[in-house]
Amino acid sequence: MPFPIRVCVVCSEEFELKPDKPGFANRCPECSNPEEEVDLLTKRSVDAVAGKADSGANEARRQAMRNLLYRKDS
pLDDT, tens digit, for every residue of 13-26? Predict the structure, then answer.
């Protein structure tokens, strides 16, 4: 029974999807290197740092919404 033929979403080349293939099922073995996954993880951590920087702005937004929703009309 032959392995299914897939098309890589990164480089558009056909490859055989074999059992226990490392990486993603829609990427060829060359495009699903562990080095690229490390790059993706470092990008996510940078985004997390930027998200923490925005937490002060988010807190101000929450406070403003709370004041608008729950203020008593005088």
Answer: 998 988 887 778 88
Domain count, the chain: 2
Residue 71 sits in the same domain as residue 45: yes
List, in order, residues 6 or more apart from 51 with CB less than 8 Å away.
Answer: none
Domain that holds residue 47: 33-74
pTM of structure: 0.41
Between the alpha carbon of residue 31 and those of residues 9, 12, 40, the distances in Å are 9, 10, 13
Pairing of strands 14-16, 5-7: antiparallel
